[in-house]
Each structure stands twice: as C-alpha cells, then as structure tokens.
Amino acid sequence: MYLSRLILNPRSRQARNELADPYELHRTICRAFPAANYKDNESSGILFRVDLHPRTHIPTLLVQSRQKPNWEFLSTEKKDYLLGENDLPLDVENPAFRELNLQLREGQTLAFRLRANPTVKKDREGKKQGRRVGLIHEADQQKWIKRKLESAGAALISVNIINERFTHGKLFIEKEKTKRLSLLSVQFNGVLQVKNPEELASGIFAGFGSAKGLGFGLLSLARVPSG
C-alpha cells in the first residue's frame, strides 16, 4: 500500500475546479494508476482526502493506493497544478509518495483523522435496495464512528466532530450520462486504541463508510500529540 502527498496550487484554475468537483479530482488521480478502473473504486483500492492548511488554506491531497503511483503526467500536462518549488520549503518534495508499512500493536493509542460520509440504509417500501440517508445529528455521527472503528478492530477513546458543507459533484453512470450528487461531509479527529492490529490494517486498506471514490473513507493515523 502506498500513500502519496500532493500540495496543490491554489492559484491553478484546474486545481480549483477539481477541488469543487470530487469526481473530476478522482479522474485525475486515477491517471496515476493506469490499471485502475475509476468506475469501480472498490476494486481499485484508491482513497483520497484533501486537507487544508489551517493558516494558509493551501490544499494538500493525500492518496492511498494499492499500486505504486506515477505522477509524472502532472508536470508535463498540468504544469501549474502543483505548488511550485519556489513556494515550498527547501526540503519538501512535491509530489511525494512512500510505501505504507503499518506496524500496529494491540493496546497502542493513536490519533486519527477521517473525512467520511456517515449514512445509514433505510428500507424502501416495494424496493429491494434501501436508500442511504446522511446522519446529520452529532450524536448519531458519534455512534457511527464508534461502530465503524469497533468493527475494524479499534476502540474509540475520544473524537471531535466537524460538520463540513455538503460535497457536490457528479456521478458517472453510463457514457454521456451523469447524475448530480450531494453528499454529507464530516471530519472526525480523535484518538483510538488498537484492539486487533490485523483487523484495523484491513479496515484502513478498505476505507470507512460510503462514497469512497469521492474523497471519503481515508483514515490517517499518527502519534498522539504530547501535552
């Protein structure tokens, strides 16, 4: 598994347009993985998340993938897409990627960040398929993240929930046919404890929640900040 980090240029028109439409951003990301099928993200294993720097608001794109990425096309075809070296500290490579080697231990306490589309499925009368409904209340969102972590071999210790705006975009259905999307976006920042390292690694690999192809489901882990 690989994790890429791309610092986008907020002055780039194309970057701004794609940040406003996660489907288009996904299409660009998939070009780094020619063997991936962007219409079937579950099998491609590509997850991504955009984090904004709290002070400068410069967007950083994180991409988790099964395959090794090749971002060369960005420098040849999208020349102002990434923040240039003149705007970066000397030791910052852009884009950069590394192989992820999750060394989780039972009982380990870690900080986590997850942007998710928390939903539940509601039955529809006369329909075989239920309808996904966004969980808009914080109490329901807290139960959702607790349940998701427990099913992935981790216990929730604490969480701060940030309700973001709805993410809009379009969903590819068939050639020349699209459907507009409006997805609830919630950021979970918290602390978890590892109960089953293998299950948690599998959960991170698969992603959390729905709409994984549109910027949701990538869970990041880090050491718990001291103090």
Q: How would you explain this protein's 3D organization?
A:
This protein is α+β, with helices and mostly antiparallel strands. A hairpin with a 2-residue loop joins strand 9 and strand 10. Helix 1 crosses helix 2. The two termini are about 30 Å apart.
User: Structural class of the secondary structure composition?
Assistant: alpha+beta
User: What is the helix content?
Assistant: 10-25%
What percentage of amino acids are in beta strands? 25-35%
Could you state the order of secondary-structure elements as H and E?
Answer: EHHHEEHEEEEHEEEEHE
Radius of gyration: 18 Å
Count the beta strands.
Answer: 12
Number of helices: 6
Shape: globular
Spatially, the strands of the biggest sheet line up as 2-3-1-4
Sheet having the most strands: 4 strands, antiparallel
Q: Distance between termini? A: 32 Å
Give average pLDDT, whole number: 87
**What ranges have pLDDT less than 50 throughout 5 or more consecutive residues?**
none
Task: Summarize this structure as a short list of keywords or feature phrases.
four-stranded antiparallel sheet, 227 residues
Strand and helix layout:
Elements: E1 2-7, H1 13-19, H2 22-30, H3 41-44, E2 47-52, E3 59-65, H4 72-77, E4 96-99, E5 109-116, E6 119-122, E7 131-134, H5 138-151, E8 154-163, E9 167-174, E10 177-183, E11 186-194, H6 197-206, E12 219-222
Antiparallel strand pairs: 1-3, 1-4, 2-3, 5-11, 5-12, 6-7, 8-11, 9-10
Helix pairs in contact: 1-2
Give a brief outline of the structure:
By secondary structure, the chain is of the alpha+beta class. The chain has helices at residues 13-19, 22-30, 41-44, 72-77, 138-151, 197-206; strands spanning 2-7, 47-52, 59-65, 96-99, 109-116, 119-122, 131-134, 154-163, 167-174, 177-183, 186-194, 219-222. It is 22% helix and 34% strand.
